[in-house]
Amino acid sequence: MPYIPPNNRPPIDEAVDVLAKEIADAMEANKETAELGSRLRLAFMAVARYIRDSESGKPPAASGKTQDPAQALARRILDIATSYGIKGGWTGELNYAVTRLLQAVPYQLYKRGEWQEPLRYWIYAEAVGALTRTAWDLHAECADDYIGNGLCGVFIDIKDEYKRRVNTAYEAAQIMKSGDCYDRTTFRTQLVPVIVNGVEGYQEIMLPPQKLQ
Hints:
The chain is globular. The protein has 2 domains: about 5-180, no CATH class; about 180-213, no CATH class. Strands 1-2 form a two-stranded antiparallel sheet. The protein is mainly alpha-helical. The chain is built from 6 helices and 2 strands. The N and C termini lie far apart (about 45 Å). About 60% of the residues lie in helices and about 10% in strands.
């Protein structure tokens, strides 16, 4: 759940933007503008490992960088979450930070002219691949405790919410533009236009069983 208190957001946003710039700079400099997933995965793991080690009472592994934006973001997450006084209270701040990073890197590449749009299906697929594989990696690396389960749960939850909040709207736009492809199954949904408080959009309805031609 990324909807953390408003006062906690600006310092995390600041750290996210620094990390997003580092990722976008590397992708641009190395002509790797399609490698969103691998770059995000490295950043996700760096943040998660720092949190895991810190919560376990171990010194976080040195990254070899003079300034490490991923570790700086992880420290910011932990520092802000201490105000809750709850073990594992950092999960909300981690969710917020990663959710913002998912948007910040594509936005930077779009603003630089490297991408024509900040969201296409392949961009979504790369992001979901990074989130999913990060959860798998953490499952393999972490103990079966509140730290490991919390970290894995956050990345899976972000993947699910990214689908619900972003990709569902993108899919609706593509269906209206290019047409649906579900016409050979008895049960399916259908988009219908709606206007809510003056805002035009689409709503998905569940159709009764359909007769197949």
